[in-house]
Amino acid sequence: MSSLYKSDVVIGKMVNIFMRDGEKGVSLKLIDETFRELKVKHGIKDPLSLIHRAVDNAKPLVALIPHYPHGKKVAVPIPLKPEQQLGKALRFIKQAVADRKEHYGHVRLANELVELANGQGGAKKRRDDLHRLAEQNRAYAHYRWR
Which segments constitute the Small ribosomal subunit protein uS7 domain (predicted)? Predict the structure, then answer.
């Protein structure tokens, strides 16, 4: 597993996003146990492709940045670069995992990834909410020049 996080961009970024207090070993252990959970409990032959599919389903295409024309705060939708999309998707997944009710972290992460791969889950809902807000605020897209 330790070589996988160095060779795969998504797993490497996931390890860094899930790391707390600089303890990368703890984050690596969480990801490793999640892989084991996906293989054993969920019966998934290739957990790496499932993780890639789940992250792709959580990637937002736009972000909202605040802008203050004439003292009024408006949310301006801006497109995201692929690296930014990956980072936001992994943060959405991290937040959705934290909001889940299962006892162990690797079980929560595995269940969230399976739900995301099937087009459901908390991170997918958050992405859809963000896209809906961006659609509502597209009238302010001309402020994107800043």
Answer: 7-138
